[in-house]
Amino acid sequence: MFKNIVPINKEKHLKTKVKAVNNFDFVKDVHIASVMVHEFSRASSVYPIVFLEDQAKDQFKPVVLTGLEEGENLFVEGNKWDASYIPAIVRRYPFALAQTGKDSQYTICIDEESEFVNEEEGQSLFNEQGEAGEVIEKVKQYLTELQQMEQFTIEFSAYMSKNNMFTPLNMKVRVGSEVKNISGAYVINEERFNALSDEKFIEMRSKKYIPVIYSHLSSLAQIERLVAFKDEKNKAQKSENLDVIENKTALEDETAEV
């Protein structure tokens, strides 16, 4: 999704403008999207939520599945995102936060290669006096809120890992005549969750983790929805290809008659 993220600074981006995101072509090939626990309640009604292990950072990160294999996003159709909820990481594009190297210090960045970043159209990052424009102030506030949510997400995932709540996802689904294996991710083990002691359950409740867990577990039913979605798209594509072949054949017949 991001191609070339760089910190925003007045000298380099004085004339830079950002157009409103009016299409989602930039994520048409993205089959996963990071989410934070505050998004789970809404995201779970649309997408399966799973966890990916980042061994380098010794972390588990939640993501939503937008496709069943790399290179596909089943929710992007004709440059539009066809779903009732769009992950925050997509909505904040082309902006992002990056750690500066100091603990808890972040800077606002922008994807310079985004089609929405230019010097001709859109909202200016800086005014003529070189002061941060309204767009930067709004983005700063939004990204700061997201960063706070991300910290809570990190703490949640670390707690689940420490208490051995994660288990590998290994699931076979049938798409048309093909059987696909969904693996490489983790989910919270429902049996272990149900077997928690009263003390541990109360501890999780005090941390506000229980609703998050329920949203995650309920979201796994959306895998079947993805399968059905992919089936429909495959059938539509086959039908479209058949129409093209028939039209081509009809055109060749007409040409032959002439």
Task: Give an overview in words.
The protein has 258 residues and is α+β, with helices and mostly antiparallel strands. The protein has one domain. Helix content is 39%, strand content 24%. A three-stranded antiparallel sheet has the order 1-9-8, with helices on one face. Strands 10-2-11 form a three-stranded antiparallel sheet, with no helix packed on it. The longest helix is centred in the C-terminal third of the chain and has 36 residues, at 222-257. This is Peptidase. It comes from uncultured Sulfurovum sp.
Assembly category:
single chain
Main sheet: strand order: 1-9-8
Query: What is the average per-residue confidence, as pLDDT, rounded to a whole number?
Result: 89
* Count of all domains: 1
InterPro entries: SapC
Pfam families: SapC (PF07277)
Protein name: Peptidase
Task: Fill in the keyword field for this structure.
alpha+beta, 258 residues, SapC, Peptidase, flat, 3-stranded antiparallel beta sheet, 13 strands, single chain
Question: In summary, what is this structure?
Answer:
The chain is an alpha+beta fold and 258 residues long. The chain has 8 helices and 13 strands.
What's the topology here?
Blueprint (H helix, E strand, L loop, with lengths): L4 E3 L2 H4 L3 E2 L13 E3 L5 H4 L5 E6 L4 E7 L10 E2 L2 E2 L6 H4 L3 E5 L6 E6 L5 E2 L4 E2 L9 H29 L3 E10 L2 E11 L1 H5 L3 H9 L3 H10 L2 H36 L1
Antiparallel strand pairs: 1-9, 2-10, 2-11, 3-5, 4-5, 6-7, 8-9, 12-13
